[in-house]
Amino acid sequence: MEQRVKNKISVVCRITLLIFSVGMFSFSHATGTKAQPNIVILVADDWGFSDVGAFGSEIATPNIDNLAKQGLKFSNFHVAASCSPTRAMLLTGVDNHRNGMGNMPETMPFEHQGKPGYKGTLNDDAVTLATMLKDNGYHTYITGKWHLGKEPGELPPQRGFERSFIQADSGSDNWENRPYIFLYDKAYWFEQGKPATLPEDYYSSKFIVDKAIDYIATDKKNGKPFFAYLGFQANHIPVQAPRSFIDKYQGVYKDGWTALRTARRNRAAEMGLIPKDTEMVTMASTANWDTLSPEQKKYDARRMEVYAAMAEAMDYHVGRFVEHLKQTGEFDNTVFVFLSDNGAEPTDPYKILSVKLWLYMNYTNDFDRLGDKGAYDAIGPSWASAAASPLSTYKFFAGEGGLRTPLIISGVPNMKKDQISSTFAHVTDIVPTLLDIAGIKPHDDHYQGKTVEPMVGNSMLPLLQGKSMRVHSADQAIGYELSGNAALFKGDYKLLKNLGPVGDSQWHLYNIANDPGEVHDLQQGMPQLFQSMKNDYDNYARANHVLPMPAGYNYITQGQLYAVHHVLIPKLKASLPKILFGLFVLISGLFLIRRRKRNTTIPKKS
């Protein structure tokens, strides 16, 4: 009898424990307890495919490399070819033409402005990852670059972020609170949606990490998981770095960009990131290093030294962030996502007359000052091609060098570690993946009773945990367009069109699995696939309201027109009363002088 009672009590206890456990599981997902992992997204700016040590670079990035050793490297991951469209897709899982970022405001033709999908800021029909995580019990933080709108209703507090300190435009100076180019009248920094100032010891990568650490520490006691988005300015123009990092790279780039591009290609092949027989296209914009004078070689090598230093400085501060999580016991429960927003930046501002004049009035480019406060540096197209090695083209264009960037994911429970995935993946896959990891059901086309844009990406969690070899099926078509440069991905194949000056405005077909350098055009040998993929692209363009580019469009020219309309004309209008008053005073003065002279020259009557 006594044994029966004990057994009944045991059964009751087990049932009670089970009910309690289920209840706690449900509670954890509703309120965000430590049953869910922390999530950290680290966004590098303008890093080429091979700018990370773990992807074949000579640049020292040990902290990012350690994340790769503890996680999975993606060698066939694709983003948009410039920052805002990538960031909009990264935070929503929605195609850029559907989330308002059909083009960046700085490069959007006037004919497109205000058309559906071409708002130039993140629209209200796309739900952000921050909103979904916050609604499921997460703390949500963002520090650094935003570039998705700077009007009051467009800032992070309205897009799901509890705490935020952001730079609202495409970039700014890394040492001071000032704009980096005449596209902007000032550097727009906001904290919690309100205009903010920077500390005296400001350096972009350091500050972005400092604020993220502060935010996490502030809320640590309540035990809720956090989502932290760190948008670094490294290595966006202007390329600037602390002298202690620059000095490490003295002499590293003395052999030039072609030698660097080849060395990186070889290391990437040895690592298994690309096929060993990968060929490369030499861009028409790549200068012949051997024809440069010794002075030119020395100067150009220094520019790349500063670039490498800026990347290493960012990695150093990533290390500080990781160490903070380790010291506070958060690291083992944190999922990391590292990526670059697009390929390396090819623009040399000193080659654009209007920008050059502005730079001469605001910065120095003296050899001994490069990287310092008040100095301006950019690597230009030749080094950018090396940064994207072994890929073709770079930022702004739809070649692999513009779209394929490093992706590292670590910290996922039961994931594969220190391995490489060569399957195609896309930036719109990030949000579904992180929601899956957090145990949150993704929305379809409704969220909290409102019709919204559906997410188009797929979860990578099965791949991360070794349960699948692909993210997308071989027959799934994924389209892309930005500023008239376009692509369509399907299995191992890519349909590609680039406008000038890089491309010929014609479609080409490549197998990017065995030819990531896009050397061998397959359209003649595979006409049926070529036509089929063109049809797929037309369907994508129609479904997403992609607009044709105006004749003669050039993104650099459009940027200059943006500056005229958004900076120069407003300044002239604001100054008009002063100008008119000055003219009035000048004319009045001239009139009085002339009258006085006339009075002194008229002879008096006797």
Explain what this protein looks like in three dimensions.
The protein is of the alpha/beta class. The protein folds into three domains: about 30-475, Alkaline Phosphatase, subunit A; about 480-545, Arylsulfatase, C-terminal domain; about 555-605. Helices cover about 35% and strands about 15% of the residues. It is built from 15 helices and 18 strands. The strands form four sheets. It has a ten-stranded mixed sheet. Helix 5 (about 205-220) packs parallel to helix 8 (about 295-325) and helix 7 (about 255-270) runs parallel beside helix 10 (about 380-385). InterPro entries: Alkaline_phosphatase_core_sf (IPR017850), Sulfatase (IPR050738), Sulfatase_CS (IPR024607), Sulfatase_N (IPR000917). This is Arylsulfatase A. It comes from Solimicrobium silvestre. Belongs to the sulfatase family.
CATH superfamily of the largest domain: Alkaline Phosphatase, subunit A
Distance between the termini: 148 Å
Helix content: 25-40%
Give the low-confidence spans.
Answer: 1-31
Q: Radius of gyration in whole Å, from Cα? A: 27 Å
SS elements, strand count: 18
What is CATH's topology name of the largest domain?
Alkaline Phosphatase, subunit A
Largest sheet: 10 strands, mixed
| Spatial arrangement of strands, main beta sheet | 7-6-5-4-8-1-9-10-2-11
Mean pLDDT: 93
Overall outline: globular
Strand portion, in percent? 5-15%
In DSSP terms, counting alpha (H) and pi (I) runs of 4 or more, how many helices? 15
